[in-house]
Amino acid sequence: ELVSRLRRRLRALREERELVLGAARACAGRGEELAAALRGLCKPNELERYVTFIGDLEKVVSLLLCLSSRLARVQDAMRRIDGNTDAEERQSLDERHKLLSRQREDAKDLKENLDRRERVVAGILAKYLTEQQLHGYRHFVQLKTSLLIEQKDLEEQIKFFEEQLENLEKSIP
After folding, report:
1. pLDDT per position as a tens digit, 51-93
2. How many domains does the chain have?
3. 169 near 3, Cβ under 8 Å?
4. Packing angle between helix 44-79 and helix 131-171, nearest 10 degrees?
5. Among 27, 28, 22, 59, CA closest to 154
6. Which of 26, 38, 74, 154 is 20 to 30 A from 93 (CA-CA)?
7. Where located (predicted)?
8. What residues contact residue 121 under an 8 Å CB cut-off, 6+ apart?
9. Nearest 5°: phi and psi at 24?
10. Host domain of residue 79
11. d(CA 124, CA 148)
12. For residue 95, how far is the Cα from the chain centroid?
């Protein structure tokens, strides 16, 4: 019964992931439409700022999510340390934790810089777009970010349930 429930949950998560991926493709299409409209309005260097910002948005958000996920796994492993854990493994986990913590702080700095760049890009676009179009741009940026987060969360859940299912199936004689 538990195996059946895990399989149903995995199926539901995979279906949800497909919906999110479809929404992400639609969002990317809106981004392309916006870029195409801006090509005819902005100066080349201003368009380049927009395109670079959008590309960096995805990279920085993905980096932050990846580092946070890896850090959470290391912290989980550190919580499972007991008296039987050898000193070398403890030291390795501690070093990985410190490294990932530093990397995540660096990624947060990148995100703050990206937020400043977003305000600059919005200021540039405000010269060319109507208020409604500018609102559409802001919505696009927020949607892109939230879809990336949702996608990563679903991938993590799917991975977790796949591992649970695999472990459960191995434990059944």
Report:
1. 999 999 999 999 999 999 999 999 998 888 887 888 898 899 9
2. 1
3. yes
4. 30
5. 22
6. 154
7. Cytoplasm, Cytoskeleton
8. 49, 50, 53
9. -65, -40
10. 1-171
11. 25
12. 24
